[in-house]
Amino acid sequence: MNSDLSIITLIREASPVVQFVMFILILASVVSWVFIFSKFREIRHAEHVSADFEERFWSGMDLSDLYRQLAHEEYESEGMENIFLSGFKEFARLRQQPGITPDAVVEAAQRGMRVALSRELDRLDERLPFLATVGSTSPYIGLFGTVWGIMNSFRALGSVKQATLAMVAPGISEALIATAMGLFAAIPAVMAYNRYSTNIGRLASRYEAFTEEFLSLLHRQAHAK
């Protein structure tokens, strides 16, 4: 092998199997970083939407006016807004129908909010399983490349009479690069997964708290004379 031990040279002269392992790890790392940045923006936006909506909701505005504003705004509602719209839509629709008890109206609104809550949490959880998969499997994929590279290096020694460090150094170096790539792909994915899981958990608690508070408010309105 070439005595040049630069990373580019080692990757270029690596065996096809090790190169394939490196390609998988580079691809996984690139896709992970795309998901990391997009999920960061998505969660931050969801937090801002929730803060703005809560400010409007608790400002004392009539719920019917708030519903009409959200329903007719140009941008698509999301997060806590969707939970409110789903619950109030069912509440307003059933409350106008004769023969329906107040408890049935509140239960229908609760079901609508629960469905909307589940959809919002599913949307926030998108791509997180991929980060978890990259974080858990990349080190083992890199280790496979390392084992394969070292195995090839020792197999090459069997065809020579005298082994020297210069003969095995390139093969071992390329093998260790696979390990480094595995860690490079895994560490950011694991850190992002843990961070975003915590943030989504906080948003979920926030959504659930609003659902319960809004449900209590609807219950009082439904039983008001």
Summarize the SSE layout with pairings.
Blueprint: H1 7-12, H2 16-57, H3 63-72, H4 80-95, H5 102-125, H6 128-157, H7 165-222
Description:
Helix 2 (16-57) packs parallel to helix 7, helix 3 (63-72) packs across helix 4 (80-95) and helix 4 (80-95) packs antiparallel against helix 5 (102-125). This protein has 225 residues and is mainly alpha-helical. The chain is rod-shaped and about 95 Å long. Helix content is 83%, strand content 0%. It has helices at residues 7-12, 16-57, 63-72, 80-95, 102-125, 128-157, 165-222. It contains seven helices and no strands. The chain has one domain (7-222). The protein starts with 6 loop residues before the first helix and ends with a helix.
Total count of helical runs of at least 4 residues: 7
Low-pLDDT segments, ≥5 res: none
Integer count of domains = 1
Report the strand count.
0
- DSSP helix fraction: over 70%
**Principal-axes shape call:** rod-shaped
- What value does the average pLDDT take? 86
> What fraction of the residues are assigned to beta strands by DSSP?
under 5%
SSE arrangement, N to C: HHHHHHH
Give the distance, in angstroms, between the N- and C-terminal Cα atoms. Answer: 89 Å
Transmembrane segments: 20-38, 128-151, 171-193
Domain MotA/TolQ/ExbB proton channel: 79-208
Function: Part of the Tol-Pal system, which plays a role in outer membrane invagination during cell division and is important for maintaining outer membrane integrity.
GO cellular component, one term: plasma membrane
